Amino acid sequence: MAFSSKRGRPKKPIPTLDEGTPELAAKRARGITTEPLDLCLERRLITPAEHRAALHLRWLYSLRFGYAGVRALALSQHETSPSRCDDPLWRAEREEDYKSALQTLAAARAQETVLKLCIFNEMPDFLRPHLQMQALTHPALASRLSAEYQTLRHGVDALVKLWQGKVF
């Protein structure tokens, strides 16, 4: 009797798509892991153009102050080519873009609401499920949530108009 050439335990089939742990899949299904800005786009509370404008504002903020969150850096890898961030003229233009965006949001009286959502990823009250349920029976809360949503829409719409025609 000859031995087979394949010995040991048979190989386990590797799934083509790794969806993570069951806990992560459950959180993803409930929308817990989705950023608030992306959640607004998913629920069609903002348009794709407003979403792009909000992401552009986040990018401008990160150029000026750095990323507003935790991230990992590979310190062993160094950049070998100069980046556009080293160009003083380009950086000055981005600074002006950021300043004009803040002035536009301040004129629209939406600066705090838009910055909390777009830059700091704070969940607005109108997206919180328990407040949405309470708003069904409390008209004052419903009007506050509606006003917060309208302020956000007014602010990101002002950013879209400010950057209309620019490619980003």
Description:
Helices cover 55% and strands 0% of the residues. It is mainly α and 168 residues long.
Mean pLDDT: 87
User: Which class do the helix and strand fractions yield?
Assistant: mainly alpha
Q: Determine the strand fraction and express it as a percent band.
A: under 5%
Number of helices: 7
Shape: flat
Number of strands: 0
Helix/strand order, N-terminal first:
HHHHHHH
Distance between the termini: 70 Å
Low-confidence stretches: none
Rounded radius of gyration (Å):
23 Å
Main sheet: strands, sense, barrel? none
Proportion of helical residues: 55-70%
Provide tags for this entry.
168 residues
SSE arrangement:
Layout: H1 22-30, H2 36-42, H3 48-65, H4 88-107, H5 111-118, H6 129-135, H7 139-162
Please sum up the structure shown.
The protein has 168 residues and is mainly alpha-helical. The chain has helices at 22-30, 36-42, 48-65, 88-107, 111-118, 129-135, 139-162. The protein has seven helices and no strands.
